[in-house]
Design goal:
The protein has 99 residues and is of the alpha+beta class. Helix content is 51%, strand content 18%. The protein has a four-stranded antiparallel β-sheet with strand order 2-1-3-4, with no helix packed on it. The mean pLDDT is 85.
Length: 99
Amino acid sequence: MALSRQSRQAVTRLFERAKAREDSASKLLDALSYRKVLERGFALVTADGAPVRSAAAVATGTMLDIEFHDGHVGATANSGERPTKRRKAAAKDSQGSLF
């Protein structure tokens, strides 16, 4: 009877340790996930399903997929001009003058 009780306790401890290891591995995997990087404000850019690692590797006209933490946006590569320059100028023109 005592051996049976000790065996059950040993098996219970074995399962508890296995569960603790699983929880630890799960937390580590979650911390190392690229999705956590996206939550910090970065984006994953892909072309034809492959990650884009440099601007020089992208030809003008290439269709790009930009993944943020909350979804995807499609884009087409241009000649390297930053679109923010045009947007700022357009916003400045459309706002009007305060004076």
